[in-house]
Structure formats: structure tokens, C-alpha cells
Amino acid sequence: MLPDGIEGLVCASAQVADRLEHVVVHGRARPYPVLGLYLVAERAEEARSVAHEVCRRTLTGHAMHPEWEVVGAELPVTPSPDRWPEPDRPPA
């Protein structure tokens, strides 16, 4: 179980250069709770690395359970907004 307010702790652990936009918690996900970090990055590997580092800083910078660790950093692949399809337009 993740502590209450974990979103705020993650945000407080991020630096401006991390370009963190938003944090979402999936505390009941199995086999591990999941933190979703929405951030701006040029490449997938950069996003993965930054997310891992922000989570590591959160664990070391706040009083967390001593056995907790970051077990991975993954990301869904989504296109940048300039590659989103045009929305359907109503008939004229």
C-alpha cells in the first residue's frame, strides 16, 4: 500500500528539468502498486530514465518503507500531439 499523498511527495521530488506534468496512482494494481508519471521528453529512454530517477529520489528523500524499491519504469507509447489524427468534423 502506498502512503496517502504519494502524488505530492513525487511532485516534491521532481526538479524543473524533469519536466513532470502530472502524477497518477494505481494503488491496487498487481503485482505492485503503480505510479504514473506524465512528463515531457524527447525520447522514450529519456522518459523512462527520468521517471526512474524521480521515483528513486522520492524513496530516498522521504520516510518510506525501508524495503520499498523501484522495480521498473515503463511507458505506453503515444504519439506526440502533432501526430494525432484530425478529429472527425461534422458534415457542413
Q: Low-confidence parts lasting 5 or more residues at pLDDT below 50?
A: none
Q: What Rg do the Cα atoms give?
A: 16 Å
The structural class is alpha+beta
Strand content: 5-15%
The counted number of beta strands is 2
Q: Note the total helix count.
A: 2
Let me know the average pLDDT.
Answer: 83
Write up this protein.
This protein has 92 residues and is α+β, with helices and mostly antiparallel strands. The protein has a domain at 6-66. The chain has helices at residues 6-13, 44-61; strands spanning 20-26, 34-39. The protein has a two-stranded antiparallel ribbon with strand order 1-2. Strand 1 (20-26) and strand 2 form a beta hairpin. Helix 1 (6-13) crosses helix 2. The chain is globular and about 45 Å long.
Present the secondary structure layout.
Elements: H1 6-13, E1 20-26, E2 34-39, H2 44-61
Helix pairs in contact: 1-2
Descriptive key words:
alpha+beta, 2 strands, single chain, 14% strand, 92 residues
Short description:
The protein is an alpha+beta fold and 92 residues long. It contains two helices and two strands.
